[in-house]
Design brief:
Protein name: Tyrosine-type recombinase/integrase
Pfam family, one: Phage_integrase
Helix content: 40-55%
Number of helices: 4
Keywords: DNA recombination
Structural class: mainly alpha
Strand order of the largest sheet: 1-2
Strand content: 5-15%
Shape: elongated
Organism: Flaviflagellibacter deserti
Distance between the termini: 54 Å
InterPro entries: DNA_brk_join_enz (IPR011010), Integrase-like_cat_sf (IPR013762), Integrase_catalytic (IPR002104)
Order of helices and strands: HHHHEE
């Protein structure tokens, strides 16, 4: 591990990123880091590709468990018409 590139500020970034990963709550990270604007927080607390992949795999697994195909759904509008395979 090369500590010559280490900066104290890296601890702050790591804490914000870890809190976001655990809670998914950007407002909590904002308060932890003391940012007055949420836009500043988004620069620190990025979501890594691994997190996105894990989230999509969880969604896929959940859908597989229910065997739901959104294109086979039947939705009813207020007028009582049936729409096959379309979001109402």
């Amino acid at each position: 591990m090369d500590l010559s590139k280490y900066r104290w500020h890296d601890n702050r970034h790591t804490a914000g990123t870890r809190l976001l990963r655990e809670t998914g709550n950007l407002k909590q990270v904002q308060h932890l880091l003391g940012h007055s604007k949420i836009e500043t927080t988004t620069k620190y607390a990025h979501v890594l590709l691994e997190d996105l992949r894990a989230g999509m795999e969880a969604v896929s697994a959940r859908r597989s468990q229910t065997h739901e195909n959104p294109h086979d759904r039947i939705d009813r509008t207020e007028e009582g018409q049936e729409l096959l395979g379309k979001e109402a």
